[in-house]
Amino acid sequence: MRTTVTESEAWAILKRYNQEAFHLQHAETVAAVMRWFAQEQGFGEEKDYWAVVGLLHDIDFEAYPAEHCRKAPELLRANNIGEDVIRAVVSHGYGIAVDVKPEHLMEKILYATDELTGLVWAVALMRPSKSVSDLETKSVKKKFKTLNFAAGCSREVIAQGAAMLGWELDTLIDKTIQAMRFWESHRVVA
Questions:
Q1: Biggest alpha carbon–alpha carbon distance for the chain
Q2: For the residues 17-43, what does the mean pLDDT come to?
Q3: pLDDT at 187
Q4: Does residue 144 surpass a pLDDT of 80?
Q5: Global pTM value
Q6: Residues spanned by the domain of 44
């Protein structure tokens, strides 16, 4: 059974624990990327569900950074979020904060793209356009190899995520750029 919380409800829950613009934009980005991947991977009927998981994936990061992915279940249960979402949220911290391994395709995509979206944005912000609209995979791949660039984005997690999916790293980067382009071109900024 899938959790039926709406995206607007998930957004309100997220904002109870996160106020920093950076964290909110990251959640919005990951939600949009997850929505795009749901559609692209043939799970269009679940795109809202995938987006909710993306929105809530770092619910505990701002308020409880030392307990990231371990505090999330408590916060999500307190807000009547189902165990399916909780498991997916927790699994994105596999090997770093928790031992819950991503098993479902949606969980693997979340694991693979969470860190990657940060790296892609960092590369995009270095460009004159400050956009992913003209960003190429080779530019991200070049910065991927430069470990002191966007050092907080774990290259190991990104590579492990690609391997979990059975994709080449270039494929994962390319698809994530496509997802972020789609979001950027359809984003309504208030």
A1: 46
A2: 96
A3: 72
A4: yes
A5: 0.94
A6: 7-186
Q: Does residue 1 fall inside a structural domain?
A: no
Query: Which element (helix H / strand E) includes 3?
Result: none
What lies within 8 Å, CB to CB, of 114 at 6+ separation is: 30, 57, 58, 92, 157
User: What does the pLDDT look like over 90-128, one tens digit per residue?
Assistant: 999 999 889 999 999 999 999 999 999 999 999 999 999
- Split into its structural domains, the chain has a count of 1
Q: Taking the alpha carbons of 178, 179, 181, 185 in that order, is the dihedral positive or negative? A: positive
CA-nearest of 99, 80, 82, 83 to 91 is 99
Could you tell me which of 130, 158, 132 has the C-alpha nearest to residue 145?
158
CB neighbours of residue 16 within 10 Å: 12
- As a whole number of angstroms, the distance between CA 84 and CA 45 comes to 16
Question: Is 94 strand, coil or helix?
Answer: strand
CA 118 from chain center: how many Å? 9
134 — phi, psi (to 5°)?
Answer: -120, 15
Calpha distance 155→145 (Å, rounded):
8
Smallest CA-to-CA distance from 161 within 37, 7, 22 is with 37
Residue 64 has pLDDT above 50, yes or no: yes
Mean pLDDT of 70-90: 96
